[in-house]
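Hi W., the adenosine monophosphate complex you wanted:
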Amino acid sequence: MAQRGTPDPEFLKTRIRHVPDFPKPGILFYDITTLLRDPAGFTSAIDQLAQPFAGAGIDLVVGIESRGFILGGPVADRLGAGFCPIRKPGKLPAKSIRESFALEYGTDAIEIHEDAISAGQRVLILDDVLATGGTARAAVSLVRQLGGQLHALAFLIELDFLKGRDKLPGERVVSVLHY
Ligand code: AMP
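Structure:
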């Protein structure tokens, strides 16, 4: 079994691969598959994502497709919380609500089951990367529409220069790594 992770953001940064020009020219993609395959790196990432919320009474971790599932499941388990997915349109089997948001060109949307959150539940939204913040802002809207009490948003990586945090005024935003 792997040792408990090293609580060191610089250690995590050494495990993340940077892929230039993916998925399109000019984008530097932060690839966490190289972190996930490393047992000490994976454990450390989950430790550092969960630690700020230990004892916060989180009822539900809401993870955003798809890397938010990989990280959000173990974080929920660590916090003694449930897990709920936010997915791309058309993927969830039961009745869902949708929120659309603007991209550089066009729009995108995400969905959540309409019975996924009970009114007043304390929710932590979780994803791998906070970039422009459009996805996270739509996720906040979905959680609030269902009556969830949003405690915070957590990210493994925040791209500070894209100012995604500015799209989340008044929210608690906690990121493990900053670029
Ligand atoms: P945004 O709505 O711009 O904040 O984008 C957030 C979503 O896009 C997250 O689910 C990320 O997984 C993904 N994403 C955006 N930019 C990057 C990047 N440079 N590297 C890896 N994933 C990214």
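The chain is about 25% helix and 30% strand.

W.
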